[in-house]
Design a protein that fits this description.
Blueprint lengths: L12 H11 L13 H6 L1
């Protein structure tokens, strides 16, 4: 079985994933450009 050591629980996986997705989109401000909207939402 395990050698008595369990990995630390990560409690902010949803927040981290959201930050990663937001950082992957090159947007200035809160408004998405209409021309790129579909491509951004598919990611």
């Amino acid at each position: 079985m395990l050698s008595g050591q369990t990995p630390a629980r990560v409690w902010n996986t949803r927040r981290t994933e959201k930050q990663r997705r937001l950082a992957s989109v090159p947007v200035q401000g809160k408004v998405l450009p209409t021309a790129d909207l579909t491509a951004m939402l598919e990611n």
